[in-house]
Specification:
This protein has two helices and four strands; from the N terminus they run E-H-E-E-H-E. The chain has 82 residues and is α+β, with helices and mostly antiparallel strands. The strands form two sheets. Strands 1-4 form a two-stranded antiparallel ribbon. A two-stranded antiparallel sheet has the order 2-3. 17% of the residues are buried.
Length: 82
Amino acid sequence: MGDKVSTSVRSVKRRGRVVVDEERCKACELCLVFCPEGALEYSPTRNSFGYHPVRMKEDNSCTGCAICAQVCPDVALEVYRE
């Protein structure tokens, strides 16, 4: 009968990079809660206001979805897709 055509779907995971304006971040935790990949964590250092700003985790699990930047009330995050 007819030829079967098999299609393979490659799963390509996008990579993103989050740049944090550490002086604007007040550690409100919204980006940590809403990040679907859990790609953010608190920095061990403090900013000039005494807050621990967020930073990307070392595992680079960010997909560049930019949800963190959308929920940030202080516009402290910029997301770049790579």
